[in-house]
Amino acid sequence: MKTAVKQRAGVRGMLCRLGAALALGGAAMSACKDDGPKQPPRSGSGQGAQEPEDGFDPGPGGSSGPPPVDAGGLCGNQIHQVEISEAPNLYFVLDASGSMLSPASSRATRYDRVREAAVDLVRNLGPLINVGAAVFPLDATAEAPCRPGGEVFPVTPGDPFAASQEGATTTSKFRSATRIEPLGGTPTAATLAALAPKLVELPGKTIVVLATDGGPNCNSSATCSAEDCIANIEQQCPEENCCAPSGLSGPGGCLDRDDTVAAIARLATSGIEVYVVGIPGSEFYGDVLDQMALAGGAAQFVSPFYFKVEDLDTLGNVLSRIASIVVSCEFDLVDPPPEDGQTNVYLDEEVVPYDLENGWRWRSPAVVELLGDVCQKLKSGRVGQVQIVSGCPTEVAR
What we know:
Mean pLDDT: 84
CATH superfamily of the largest domain: von Willebrand factor, type A domain
Structural class: alpha/beta
Shape: elongated
Strand order of the largest sheet: 5-4-3-6-7-8
Largest sheet: 6 strands, mixed
């Protein structure tokens, strides 16, 4: 899905076109001349970047952002309507088992901290992603602690870029939808199996971010020895094997390794990568989480193959790193400029020079691509607004 960025009319461009139509002369038409260097043709090759001429003046938009729409006589205020190229679907699957109620700070639980980090990422990335969420279990009770999880927020385009994201629609709805009280077990396999048909049908690239504080369980058909019984693993079992048929936990307390890995592998086979994030509390299950990560097709290069979070203060950075892998730095222009050399890119009203290493280029006649450090800044969620503006000579890296 694609998201529009606001568009403003080009006063200078309008005046120049009107002047040409009326054959205005003198100062009126000289104000419309292009005295700056031409940028490379919009061929997408990225070749032939010209150095700025000596004494080149970038114009009114050179360093302080595009001029306001009412800046009479100034150029550079035709802001193009753009669309995000192939915004990926970022789908959170959040552990909401009873252990997620464990305090993570004096005022927040583990679940609170995970949810806060997810909300921040949704806010910061805005239209660069489409976002959805499920929790597991869903609607669990003390009598039925192993109900499978389910979707709480359908995949929705992120909020448009804006100077302020306060009260943004998608972000606020995502925050509300994920506000639940953790309870019950960890039915990971059953949840992923239930979500799979919906996830596979989503258009475009989809990735799943699975965040958990423990090992999967809730498989009533499982059998296991004490070695694979969660109560025994966490040293909370007063018996030899709490997962024996007559044990304290019963078979549902067995580590549901095989079915969970298989459910993740099926998603990966369908083209959906699964990023496994283990937060504090999951230390006992590193080998299982590694297997899950490897099955998901999005493992790290060295062990731990899953994304291990030892301090929840770093979770936001981990989620940003995952998202940056799939976020695009390309912008489709709905109304590409009619001539070369008259377009600039602004991030939060700061001009980005045309530069093939750490700037931007024309990917095609109607697609702008951010490059290098500029692209990474966008992917990190540290950009509140992107503007692509025509009307002034292109600012070229010196």
